[in-house]
UniProtKB/TrEMBL annotation:
It comes from Oldenlandia corymbosa var. corymbosa. The lineage of its organism: Eukaryota, Viridiplantae, Streptophyta, Embryophyta, Tracheophyta. This is OLC1v1008049C1. GO terms for molecular function: quercetin 3-O-glucosyltransferase activity; quercetin 7-O-glucosyltransferase activity. Residues 7-52 form the Glycosyltransferase N-terminal domain. InterPro entries: Glyco_transf_N. Pfam families: Glyco_transf_N. Belongs to the UDP-glycosyltransferase family.
């Protein structure tokens, strides 16, 4: 029998993203798969106490978002760009260290926000999978906006929104904040 598969799970410190990825990590570890959870140092205490296991190891990146580098009241795009620089610096080093220590990663599971993590996985010749922490309804809204079949709501022209196959009619305040910020 060969070595156990090794999955590296990249978690960003964003509300609503940490616990789903952590629960996913626990589920796959319970199946005998080795898991390394990579997270930012600012949330280290959240992980270390309650989540120790033989199959789940935790790896801490330096703080991705230094609050001094993000202007007050800045748009989410500013935060995402700063996080991108840090992840692009640190994730390859973590993957290299795992490989050189005899624990090569087979699969990278990453929060859907840092989509560029997939490119890093490709550089290392490993499989990658985005983990969407939001609902299928939110994915459908993003898809229809991207395809142009749903128009962006504006505060001047409030509209109601309905999507194919969904019985619910949305108001702008029901939409994700990336789409409509009330």
């Amino acid at each position: 029998m060969g070595t156990k598969p090794h999955v590296l799970v990249l978690i960003l410190p964003v509300q609503g993203h940490i616990n789903p990825l952590l629960q996913f990590s626990k589920i796959i570890a319970s199946r005998g798969i080795k898991v390394t959870v990579v997270f930012e140092s600012s949330i280290e205490t959240t992980f270390q106490a309650d989540n120790q296991s033989e199959l789940i190891k935790f790896e801490c990146m330096t703080e991705i978002i230094d609050q001094e580098n993000v202007p007050e009241n800045s748009a989410p795009d500013a935060w995402i760009e700063i996080a991108k620089v840090k992840v692009l610096e640190q994730l390859p080093l973590i993957l290299e260290n795992k490989a050189s220590s005899g624990e090569p990663v087979n699969v990278l599971v990453y929060d859907s926000l840092p989509h560029y993590a997939c490119d890093i996985a490709k550089q290392f010749g490993i499989q990658a999978a985005a983990f969407f922490t939001h609902s299928a309804t939110v994915s459908a809204i993003y898809h229809h906006l991207h395809e142009g079949t749903l128009k962006f709501p504006s505060k001047e022209e409030p509209i109601t929104i309905s999507l194919p196959s969904l019985p619910y009619v949305f108001k702008p305040k029901d939409l994700p904040s990336y789409v409509y910020d009330s």
